[in-house]
Amino acid sequence: MNFRRATMADADLLFAWRNDAHTRAMSHDGREIAFSDHLAWLDKSLTDARRDLFVCQGDAAAPIGVIRRDDEGALSVLSWTLNPDYRGRGLGKAMLWSFVTRYPGRYRAEVKASNVASQKMCVHAGFRLGEEKGGIFHFYREAPRPPK
Predict the structure, then answer these.
(1) What is the pLDDT of residues 68-92, one digit of tens each?
(2) Which residues form the N-acetyltransferase domain (predicted)?
(3) Which domains are seen in the chain, by residue range?
């Protein structure tokens, strides 16, 4: 799997994934968004020094998903969306595992209790379940320790 920084050229693709009915059902905010609001969010996200957006591509350069990393100081919060065309193939697990091994760090992921697929992704990628708050599971992954 390869990762590249998202650009404004990805706006249509990311918008389609974000407004997918299943994606919205698994998101903290399940509302459908307008394209103009999406463009404003993407523009702000791409210029925010504390946020990174990575598009994950498979061997054939097909876009598999997107991972957002928000720097919160002591750790970074990850969130992701999988291309709806690739659900159910294990590619979400591979995408998250590839990301956290390529970009090691201290991470938290907030996953809805109903989002079993993302919970499995977290476990596969070495996250541990922390607390549950209001129907949201908080998963944590520590940076690997350097060898002695």
Answers:
(1) 999 999 999 999 999 999 888 889 9
(2) 1-147
(3) 2-104 (3.40.630.30)
